[in-house]
Amino acid sequence: MKKADIFEFYRRLAELNPSPETELESVNIYTLLVAVVLSAQSTDAGVNKATRALFATVRDPQAMVELGEAGLKSHIKTIGLFNTKARNVIALSHLLIDKFGGEVPTDRDALETLPGVGRKTANVVLNVALGAETFPVDTHVFRVANRTGLAKGKTVMAVETILERQTPQPFRTHAHHWLILHGRYTCKARTPECWRCPVIDLCAFRPKSLPPAKIPASIR
DNA sequence: ATCCCGAGGG
DNA sequence: CCCTCTGGAT
Question: Helix (H, G, I), strand (E, B), or coil: what is residue A131?
């Protein structure tokens, strides 16, 4: 996508939602980390439903370890991949206590040493908790970037590299959330709702599937 | 049947 | 690169 169009793309999403935030609920950086780990291949709404009860009493690694894997599983049974996630969250909590003084590390390499934490999760924690200019590429960002032509890449890493390089300064901290919210509510996976898309004229997908709207002269 | 703020292992 | 883990919503 052309440089001027990239700027205009973000400018419009920013105008509609000046300060976008994550829809994952958390009470501190530790619970944020846990929520993001739990969110893999699951909806934010589904994760929130489970974590509301969990985070009411468990808000730090020590409490999580005391709850135990079986106890955690009973809280997250309704979330996909819950066996692996429960194991990872308990292991990750032990590691935070043993190697990081009970605190969540704030650099990407350290975060990625935690079980269940990959590049995308680390990028989300850094962006949401610290306001870092990271570009987590999830299913929505990957789809929106490729479909619209904003950043075409065959892998999530390729897309992240392009976003990191091309995103204009005023939009760098929130770009991730604008793309994800646009993907979740408008540029949906199965049936994108192009009729209410604010950037339809900048989109590479629109011309092929939906012809440009022709408004009859009679109603103009 | 497809998708949801993926990661780890082969 | 591929596959598996997994329940809930649509």
Answer: coil
